[in-house]
Design goal:
Helices cover 38% and strands 4% of the residues. It is elongated, with a radius of gyration of 18 Å. It contains three helices and two strands; from the N terminus they run αβαβα.
């Protein structure tokens, strides 16, 4: 998801793309950096006893928040357009 958004930001900035289509903008994710997760995985592999681990930043943000932050970096004002509606997911 983050790669799709960042590619769209670059594409729109350079004029090769006009829009970005996404699903549920209210979905929440932990947008931690891969480097931090790899460090955590390495630390887990060094652990001697079998234990369950959870890797997370503890901060969740919506897809909408990520998109707005990404596009603010290139000073683009967003316009949201509802292309389709699934009544069980969104109030239409």
């Amino acid at each position: 998801m983050s790669r799709k958004i960042t590619w769209a930001v670059a594409g729109i900035y350079h004029g090769g793309q006009k829009a970005l289509e996404l699903g549920n903008l209210e979905a929440r994710r932990d947008w931690g950096h891969a480097r931090d997760f790899v460090k955590g995985i390495h630390m887990i592999l060094q652990h001697h006893d079998p234990v369950d681990f959870v890797l997370a930043t503890g901060i969740s943000r919506s897809v909408r928040e990520f998109v707005e932050e990404a596009f603010s970096s290139i000073d683009v004002q967003l316009t949201y357009v509802l292309l389709s509606c699934i009544p069980s997911v969104v109030s239409c």
